[in-house]
Fold this sequence. Notes:
Elements: E1 7-9, H1 12-20, H2 47-55, H3 64-70, H4 80-89, E2 97-98, H5 99-104, H6 111-119, H7 122-133, E3 137-138, E4 141-145, E5 148-150, E6 155-158, H8 161-164, E7 165-167, E8 174-176, H9 185-199, H10 205-212, H11 224-232, E9 249-251, E10 268-269, E11 275-276, H12 293-298, H13 300-311, H14 324-337, H15 339-342, E12 355-357, H16 358-361, H17 366-370, H18 373-380, E13 398-400, H19 422-426, E14 434-443, E15 448-453, H20 466-469, E16 473-474, H21 493-504
Helix pairs in contact: 1-10, 4-13, 9-10, 14-21
One heme C binds next to helix 8, helix 11 and helix 13.
Amino acid sequence: MNTTFRKHRDWPILFLAVFFSVGQITAVYSQTNVLNPNLKISSTLPPAASLLFSKDFIVSRDLNAVSQAANGKVSSKGNAKRGLDLILNKRYLPPDFDQETFDSIWMVWPDKLRRLALSASDQKRLQMAFDRYGFTPRENDPLKPLQYVVDNEGKWSMNCFACHGGRLYDNRQSFPGLPNNRIALETLYEDIRAIKRKLKKPFSGMDIGSAIIPMGTTAGTSNAVIFGVSLMAFRDSNLDLKSVVIPPYVIHHDMDAPPWWHYKRKKMIYIDGFTEKHHRGLMPFIMVKQNHGERFRGFEDDFVHIQEFILNVETPKFRGSINRSLAAKGKKIFQSNCQNCHGSYGSPSTFPEKTIELDEIETDPVRLKALSKNYRQRYGKSWLADFGKSKTVIDPVGYVAPPLDGIWASAPYFHNGSVPTLRGVIQPSQRPTVWTWEEGTMDLKRMGLKVIELPEDSPHLHPSEAAKKRLIFDTRRYGKSNQGHEFGSLLSDTQSLQLLEYLKTL
Ligand code: HEC
Ligand code: HEC
């Protein structure tokens, strides 16, 4: 059912079903070490993958950066290490499924994959499952994914890293704060529902919710914003549950999460810059029914630490070769064509945080329109925005030009993830209409995902298996346009390559 998005008013009954079916929450806090940068994950990989990993250190990064960021940095406001630990190990949402369910999930895979899984070792099977859903192993505990809290009883709950933690091209290690460009939530919950039916286990709130509200129709993107909007409809300004709920008008659409290392640069957050940076603004993700009123507000201190972690995520540096003389020429092109909106890098470093009107930027309009004035007003008057003390823009006119630090690492590009390479961002003629990509490799020429372009009438567009279809990005679909941002379209090929070289240095 969730293959196309359209505008609709959800039936109140369905909507209430999502909300009230969410299971019991158990607040379990288990202590584990933060990332261990010395762990050699490559040794646990099958030969092909370790080859990939060892062959090419171009995009490998120093994981110390993450642990340094997390290492006991305490500001007056919070402690980054504690923030990371909370995301990884504290359960804010009810469990979605248990270990037995996840271990059995391969049994509902399509025939060919299931046969492979059947004859695979446990470790290989786990890796197949991680690959299918876009999970990456934790550094010090590779049987658990970064993207889920797994408690001592083997109960799994989604955490922030489902969308905000992934891996960098050929580097097998997990990178908390990097947008997860492989997360496949729709596929995961589809499979979870199927295996639970087989095992006769009850559905969780997320199982039911995700059958009603699509979680994301293309892997690597999610409908997270609309989940937030939907949950907000049940709250009064204090975030207590309301007795009368009017179902909101929702416009489902997929978004590519932004990298967390940009957060420190911003005063206003989200692509339309609609709300001021504030730790409470990070909490909508946990606004399920069980977390209401006092209990919800009681998590505030945790989010001070979580925000501190986010503020300390370091920008990954490109380690591959950079042609300095090309880059120097590219810098000049950047200064005259891009800097006005995106700011300057190195010293001085500036970030103008400019909103560009939709008429000028012309990228996909759906996200801007999906948040109604009414929703923004309610948000601005609520506890989340400190009852108006924290600024909210009720009527944003376009999208904010984001910072470009570490931009080489966060493909695909634009807020909907529609453009797979930086070359394509610069030169609109280089943007594929229908594409899929080879995981674990980087296109160093175009800087971004290694794309396989599909013909527009390709039979691959209608693969029988839904999970496969979600790996295909079709920019002709609703909310997925790759148009607009034509600011580099007049540059020659030579100039584009110079600019591309400069972007590697940011
Ligand atoms: C299901 C996917 C998903 C999950 C889970 C999720 N987010 Fe996000 N997050 C997004 C998307 C999509 C955006 C972009 C929204 C926008 O710009 O409108 C975003 C944006 C953000 C931003 C960036 C704001 C900016 O402008 O730079 C921060 C910070 C953030 N989320 C924090 C969190 C935290 C903390 C959690 C966990 C408590 C979390 N998110 C859970 C999808 C998710
Ligand atoms: C008039 C303002 C403006 C100019 C000039 C401009 N940009 Fe942008 N740029 C934006 C906005 C706004 C976005 C966000 C668009 C979206 O996500 O829908 C963006 C997005 C991007 C992105 C994607 C960021 C991401 O995280 O997905 C890159 C890369 C980028 N611009 C590079 C450039 C380069 C290189 C130039 C110069 C050729 C340039 N831009 C010129 C406003 C501008």
